[in-house]
């Protein structure tokens, strides 16, 4: 798979996650409190989300489709996702920032998902190279 295809797949996945997040199940009683608690719930019963979290997913989805369409570099998109999601993974591990300062919940299973997304994006953004095209003779 090339970086452009990765941008398409990730963009579609983010759009689906963003839409699915608007249909949450309730958070457990021991969930950290948020200052931005509109739509606060659990996606798929395990991933903490709120409305702002959904908007972020939709934004990354639109950016992924734009990168696939050639509006900007798919490699740059993968780099942006890698840095952002690996940073979110680290923030999710620290108790003081598990709610991104009360705005977006990023704890629990979300940390593992952010790590997987960040590592995959790091590969396509920083390691994978475009295939070399043969020059006509």
Count of discrete alpha- or pi-helical segments spanning 4 or more residues: 4
Low-confidence stretches: none
Q: How many distinct beta strands?
A: 2
Give the amount of beta strand, in percent. under 5%
**Portion of residues within helices:** 40-55%
Q: Which geometry do the CA atoms define? A: elongated
Broad structural category: mainly alpha
Query: What value does the Rg take, in angstroms?
Result: 16 Å
Mean pLDDT: 92
Report the end-to-end length measured between terminal Cα atoms. 28 Å
- Whole-number tally of structural domains: 1
Element order: H for helix, E for strand: HEEHHH
Sheet with most strands: strand arrangement: 1-2
Please summarize the sheet with the most strands.
2 strands, antiparallel
